[in-house]
Structure formats: structure tokens, C-alpha cells
Amino acid sequence: MSVEQLKAGDQVFHPMYGFGVVEGMTTRDQSGQTANYYGVRLSAGGVLTVPVVRAEAVGLRRVVNGLKTVMACLRSPAHPLPDNDRQRIVELKARWQSPLPGALAEAVRDLLARSRSRSLTPADKKWLSNACDRLSDEAARVDATDLAVARTAIQREMDQFKAR
Question: Which of 3, 42, 46, 116 could cross-link 20 (Cys pair, CB 3.0–4.6 Å)?
């Protein structure tokens, strides 16, 4: 999916600024050059202006991870994470900031798999909690459901994953 297809009303996610809704597109003239920009009303407040030509490069994407998608990812085979705490945190941070829609759910799955054989560090636990919050937020937006319902469903699946 190309972000150039975004239109007013689309719900989006930006890795640095979070969730928002596209308000529209504007054209600006800078130094004799015209450029198109998305105006994104951020859920946390404020408006983010993103050049259309750089939107994909900065990670702006439409929200697409409903509960069904998140659950399917959590049930898929896990991949190992680095044993070194610093390397693992770097990898988890990269997945947190990834523009790929499935990157966060995959990282949650992989960290849950790690928790079966090793104790998670306090940093791992904090990251996992924050990731669950973000997955729940996106799923609630996609499925047009209550955030608490999405959070409960994802937490239940995470608990079942750890019990397998």
C-alpha cells in the first residue's frame, strides 16, 4: 500500500508521533517549488504536517491491525531475540519504530516466546506492556471497538501464548 493513497478521514500511525487522522492534503510553495503535504490531526493533540513524498520513508501508514490480525500474528511461529540485553533492546526499539504494520505484533510474539525459557528484564516487561497498549489502541481503532475490549482480548491471547 502506498501512503500516497491516503485521504481525509483515514486513520494513520506515525512511529514517532503516534495515531492520528488525515485531515487532508495541502500544497505549499517553498522557494519556487510546490510540494504536497498531509495534515494529520494527532490523537495526542496537535497537527503533524508530512511531505507526501516522504510519508512512506518516515513510516506514516494507515492503521490496519485489527484484533484478528494481531491474534493471527501472536499465534504464528516465533523468532529468537538476541540474548544480550542491549542488543535485544535495540532490536525491540527498531521494531517499535518500524513502518511495517506487523513489526510490533511480531516483536511481542517473539518476546513472549523468550519469556517461556528466560525471565524478562524490567526493560523487557515495560516494553511489552507499552507494546500491548499500542496494539490494543490500533486494534480498537480498526475494529471500531472499545479500547478496554481490545486490551482484554490481546492480554488474554498473550496469557495463552505464555501458557503454551
Answer: 42
